[in-house]
Design goal:
This protein is α+β, with helices and mostly antiparallel strands. The chain has one helix at 2-26, and strands at 58-62, 70-73, 76-79, 83-84, 87-92, 96-101, 104-109. The chain folds into two domains: 1-30; 39-109, Roll (SH3 type barrels). The chain contains one helix and seven strands. The chain has a four-stranded antiparallel β-sheet with strand order 4-5-6-7, with no helix packed on it. The termini are far apart. Residues 44-53 have low confidence and may be disordered.
């Protein structure tokens, strides 16, 4: 019975020590926030918008029934018809947006580096 009480006490002491260590690690202010956009996309203020079209990044598309479509472009929420710098949000789809401005039409895609290509493979007869 005494051995069981010592094991129980040892368990609780170990558990409390582990929790105290974990709390210290979680409270560390030097850990990066994984939800923050990359430093290149952060702007000085919420009202500021990138001046160059090449720096605009489509981060999210919002399409809900009963609400105007919107998009998050370089950290700024823009409703359909709203402005991003001098460009107006003209079209919102599930995967892209189109901005119309003085320089013409700019298309932003959620996955700009992905190029879909149709690939046809033939089944060769096995020997």
């Amino acid at each position: 019975m005494v051995g069981h009480m010592n094991m129980n006490r040892l368990f609780w002491i170990t558990l409390l020590g582990s929790l105290a260590t974990s709390a210290h690690v979680l409270a560390d202010d030097n850990l990066p926030d994984p939800t923050r956009p990359p430093a290149g996309l952060q702007t000085a203020g919420a009202a500021s918008a990138p001046a160059v079209a090449d720096t605009l990044v489509l981060q999210s598309v919002l399409m809900n029934a009963g609400r105007a479509p919107a998009a998050v472009i370089s950290g700024q929420l823009v409703v359909l018809g709203g402005l991003v710098g001098e460009q107006r949000l003209a079209i919102v789809t599930e995967r892209s947006v189109q901005l119309k401005g003085p320089q013409g039409i700019t298309t932003l895609r959620l996955t700009p580096d992905v190029n879909k290509q149709l690939r046809v493979s033939r089944m060769e007869p096995t020997k």
